[in-house]
Design brief:
Elements: H1 7-25
């Protein structure tokens, strides 16, 4: 998912980003058929 990034660091970044997105959107769960992650370099 994140080419060239060490697996553990990439995993931690994806988890953090998903948690922040859920918090901002007020979500507790998402439907099984709904998962879209769009990212860019900051």
């Amino acid at each position: 998912m994140l080419p060239g990034v060490p697996l553990e660091a990439g995993r931690d970044s994806l988890i953090t980003g998903a948690r922040e997105a859920f918090k901002e959107l007020g979500l507790k769960t998402s439907p099984r058929n709904w998962l879209l992650v769009v990212a860019g370099r900051a």
